[in-house]
Amino acid sequence: MPRPTVNDLAKMAGVSLATVDRVLNARPGVREKTVRRVNLAIETLGYVRDVTAANLARQRSYRLVFVLPDAPVQFVSTLREAIAESLKSSVADRTEAKIVTFSNGNPHALVKSLRALDASDTDGVAIFAPETPHVRDAIARLKADGIPIVALVSDLPNTGRDHFVGIDNIAAGRTAGFLMGKFIGNTSGSVMVLVSSMQARDNVERRLGFDQVMAGSFPQVDVLPSLENHDDEDVTTRLITDMLRDRPDIVGIYAVGHGSRALVNVLRDHERREAIILIGHELTQVTRDALREDLMDAVISQNVGHIVRSAFRVLRAKSDGLDIFSAQERIRIEIVVRENLI
Amino acid sequence: MPRPTVNDLAKMAGVSLATVDRVLNARPGVREKTVRRVNLAIETLGYVRDVTAANLARQRSYRLVFVLPDAPVQFVSTLREAIAESLKSSVADRTEAKIVTFSNGNPHALVKSLRALDASDTDGVAIFAPETPHVRDAIARLKADGIPIVALVSDLPNTGRDHFVGIDNIAAGRTAGFLMGKFIGNTSGSVMVLVSSMQARDNVERRLGFDQVMAGSFPQVDVLPSLENHDDEDVTTRLITDMLRDRPDIVGIYAVGHGSRALVNVLRDHERREAIILIGHELTQVTRDALREDLMDAVISQNVGHIVRSAFRVLRAKSDGLDIFSAQERIRIEIVVRENLI
DNA sequence: ATTGACATGAGGTACGTACCTCAAATAGCG
DNA sequence: CGCTATTTGAGGTACGTACCTCATGTCAAT
Fold it and tell me: Which chain A residue's Cα is nearest to B47?
C-alpha cells in the first residue's frame, strides 16, 4: 500500500486530474459540491501531498534574509556560523539565505537595510534587533508588503511579527535565579546583576524572571540594581572592578547579556573567585573555558543551531501560508555546567 | 545562477548525459579519464545532487525497525510516542518504521524478533536493549546481512553496531554528581544510589561518572553502594523505605535508572523530604510533577525527539552508504529544574 | 431554445534525476 | 590491418506534482 497520489484521488472522487489539481491548489472554478467530493477522497485515502515532488515541479525556492547586529559578542558570530552551517545542508531544501548586518548603535542603518528588502526577491526575514520605534515601523512596512517576519532571540511583540524564535527569557531568568539560589545555599550576601542594555527586551525579561525567583525562594540573598554595560568590555571591567572592591558581601554575579568575556577576565584574577557564584548566558568559547576552569558555575543557553533551523522551518511554512507545529518550534532553555559541556 | 544540474555537468565535461549519470551513480563502463573530467565539472560548478528529485525518480523508501523493551517505565512509552510523532512528519521523507517490542526478562523473545528481520524488507534497525551474548549474536547476524544497526539510549559497543544514538552516560552521571554536590553544599552526609540493573550499560556508566565527580570534587559526601531495583516498583518502595528508616544521615538520592515513580511516591510522604536532594533521569510526567512540587531538584534528561530523529537520519544515511555529520548527531545531556521545565 | 457563464475533462509540458535500450564510436589487441 | 571489447551517445520512460490550453459539458436566465 504505497502512498496515494493525485491520480488515486481523481479515480476515487470520480473527477479528472485537473479538477483534483484545482482543489489541491485552491484554484477557482470548481463547484462547492465537487470540492467536497475531492476532500472526502483526500481524507479517506489519507492523501498527503508529496512536498518534494511539488517543490520540484513548482521550481520553488525560498529566499530568506537574516538581519543581525554587529555587536562584538561571540554569541552573534556563533549565530552567523549556525546560519552558514544550516545553509550547507539546506541546498536540498531549495533554501538560500543572506545575512544583513546593521551597526548596533545606528538605528537608521537598520531601517535602511530593512527598506532595501522587497517582496519580489525575499520570501521571509528573521530579525535579531532591539525593539525601537524605527524598527517597529520598518517591520510594519515589510509585513504590509506581505513578507513573513520572525523575531530572533529577542522578541518584538508589538511589531506584528509572525513568530518569535528563541527561549522564554523570563523563564531563562528564573532558571538563573533558581541555580543562583541553590548554589549559594544558606549563605547570605548580595548578588550583582550585569545587563547589556535596558533597551534589549530579552535582557529586561531575564532580569524580571531572576528577581521573581530570588525574592520568592531565596529571600536571604540581596539582589542589587542592574548595571548596564552596553556590550562594552571596558565599561564592564570598570564596573566589576569597582563593585568587587567596594562590596565584600558579593556572593554571586548574574551576567544577563550575551557577552561575558570582560567579566570572566576580571574574575579570573580576583582573590575571592572561589567564593563567588557566577552564572551567565550563551555557550561560547569564553563561557566554555570559564566553565572548565570552574570560574563560571552555570551557563543558561539556547542552542543556536535549533534557533536557526526553527527560523528556517517557520519562514518556509509562513511563506507557503502553512501552519506550524508550535510545540516542535519551542526552543529549550539549556543549562550547561562543567560536566555536561559537549 | 540557479543550481547546476546534470545537464550542465554534461555540457561542461563535454560528455553525454548518460555518461554523467554513469559517473554519478558509480555505474561501470566509463574510462578513468572521463570520470575525472566529469568530477572536475562537478567541483568547478559546485554541483550537488538534488536528493529530493533523485529519491522521487528512484522511488526510494526507507523501511526501518525500532526494537524496544516492554519495561514498565514511562521513558520507553515516551520513546514510542516520539517515534510515532516523527513518523507523521516523515511521510515526506519516504520513511516508514515499525516498532518491535520484546519482553524485558526474556532474551529469547528478543533474539527471535531480531531473527525475523530480513534485508529484503528492512533498511535499518535501531535497538534499545541490554548487552547480552544473545543480543550480540543476533546483531552480528543482521550486520552480516548488510543491515545497518544503531544502538539506542544504551550503547552496544561490542556488537559491531554502526552508531550509537544517545547521551554520553558517563558524562550524564558526572553531571548528576556535580549537581548533587553543589546542591548539598558543605553539609556532609550520605547519598543513596538506585540503579535499575547492573546489566544495563547506561546505568553502569552513569554510576561510574557519578562516583568520579563525587570522589573528586565533593569528598565530604559518602556515596553508598548501588541498590538494584530491576525496574520493579515494589522492590524500589521497600528498598527506599528501609534505607530512609535506617540511615538518618541520607542527604541525597540519585536515581540512575529510567523510572522514578515509586521513589517519588515514597519520598512525597516522607518527613525529611525537604532535607534530601533528589536527582534522577529522564523527563516524564512523573519527574515533571516531582520537579514542580520541589520534590526532585534536578532531572538529567535526553530529548527523545532528538534521539529518534537522529536515529532516522543515521539509518537513512547508512542505508545509502553515506557518511554522517557526527557533530550534528550528538545528543545533549539536558539539565531540567523546576524553572526551565518546558 | 438560445446564450453566456461557469465547471470539468483531456492532454500536454516541465522540474531534476534514475535507469533502460540500442546504436555508434573508440580503444586495445594481435 | 581487422577484430573484439569497451566506452560513449542518443533518446526514451518514469517518479509525483504544478500549471497550461483548449474543448466540451452543464446550468440558469433570457
Answer: A91
pLDDT at B89: 66
Taking the CA atoms of residue A298, residue A302, residue A305 and residue A308 in that order, the dihedral angle to the nearest 10 degrees is -160
> What secondary structure letter does DSSP report for A275?
G
- Please report, for chain A, how many H helices and E strands are present, in that order: 14, 11
> Buried b / exposed e across A4-38, counting CB within 10 Å, b at 16+?
bbbeebbebbebeeebbebbbeeeeebeeebeebb
The H or E element spanning position A117 is none
For residues B342 and B338, what is the distance between their CA atoms, to the nearest angstrom?
9
Interatomic separation, CA of residue A16 and C1' of nucleotide C21, rounded (Å): 34
DSSP state of A325: -
Helical (H) or strand (E) element with A26: none
Closest CA to A76 of A101, A107, A98: A101
Q: What radius of gyration, in Å, describes the C-alpha atoms of chain A?
A: 25
Write the DSSP assignment of A286-298 as a string of letters.
HHHHHHHTTS-SE
A223 forms beta bridges with A191
Give the pLDDT confidence of A6-23 residue by residue, as tens digits: 999 999 889 899 999 999
Which residue is it, cell 549519470? B21
DSSP letter assigned to residue A249: T
pTM, whole model, 2 decimals? 0.85
The string of pLDDT tens digits covering residues B93-126 is 678 888 999 887 787 888 888 888 888 788 899 9
Q: Which residues are CB-neighbours of B175 under 8 A, at least 6 positions away? A: A337, A339, A340, B209, B300, B333, B335
Asked whether the beta carbons of residue A56 and residue B50 sit closer than 8 angstroms, the reply is yes
Helix ranges (H only) for A100-193 are 107-116, 133-144, 169-184
Query: Is-contact A95 A308, C-beta < 8 A?
Result: no
Cβ contact B2 with chain C strand, < 7 A:
yes
8 A C-beta contact, residue A340 and residue B175: yes
Strand D lies under 7 A from the Cβ of residue A322: no
End-to-end CA distance of chain B: 43
Min distance B179 CA to chain A CA atoms (Å)? 9
Q: Give the nearest nucleotide to B31, CA to C1'.
A: D7
Distance, CA of A9 to C1' of C7, in Å: 18
Cβ within 7 Å of strand D: which of B 9-68?
Answer: 14-19, 22, 28-31, 33-34, 53, 56-57, 59
